[in-house]
UniProtKB/TrEMBL annotation:
<keyword id="KW-0472">Membrane</keyword>
<feature type="domain" description="GPI-anchored protein LLG1-like">
    <location>
        <begin position="12"/>
        <end position="88"/>
    </location>
</feature>
<dbReference type="InterPro" id="IPR039307">
    <property type="entry name" value="LORELEI-like"/>
</dbReference>
<dbReference type="InterPro" id="IPR058888">
    <property type="entry name" value="LLG1-like"/>
</dbReference>
<keyword id="KW-0812">Transmembrane</keyword>
<keyword id="KW-1133">Transmembrane helix</keyword>
<dbReference type="Pfam" id="PF26578">
    <property type="entry name" value="LLG1"/>
</dbReference>
<protein>
    <submittedName>
        <fullName>GPI-anchored protein LORELEI</fullName>
    </submittedName>
</protein>
<feature type="transmembrane region" description="Helical">
    <location>
        <begin position="109"/>
        <end position="128"/>
    </location>
</feature>
Length: 129
């Protein structure tokens, strides 16, 4: 059963990311939604494909480190950052971006960070602590 639930290791090294942009702009105790959501998008959108990959542990890993470095309340981004009913809309990166190659570039697809995924994973991370 645990083999069926096994996730592949995230190819993004979230443990070595610079979380200062998040911590500078998204501060408690108020955690202003506009600033926090803008900072979250700036931080997470370059990795939207990896974060939304349900076969990897990228979302869990990213939210774990966000919690460690930012000490954000559970569900902050899922509850406050709503642009559409399915998530945040990330701008499409330039085609020469390191996260996009010719085989996976789809200029017509909307890139979204699933709020449901964010909320569930935040809960799971906090439950494991």
């Amino acid at each position: 059963r645990s083999l069926l639930n096994a996730k592949k290791k995230c190819e993004v090294s979230f443990e070595y990311m610079d979380y200062k942009v998040m911590m500078r702009r998204c501060k408690g105790p108020a955690f202003p939604a506009e600033e926090c959501c803008s900072a979250f998008k700036e931080f997470a959108c370059p990795y939207v494909n990896q974060i939304n990959d349900m076969n990897s542990d990228c979302a869990k890993t990213m939210f774990s480190y966000l919690n460690i470095y930012g000490n954000y309340p559970p569900g902050l981004f899922a509850n406050e950052c709503k642009e559409t009913k399915v998530g945040l809309v990330c701008p499409s990166p330039p085609l020469n971006s390191p996260n996009v190659n010719a085989s996976n570039a789809d200029p017509t697809a909307l890139r979204r960070i699933s709020l449901l995924l964010s909320a569930v994973l935040t809960f799971l991370v906090l439950a494991l602590l």
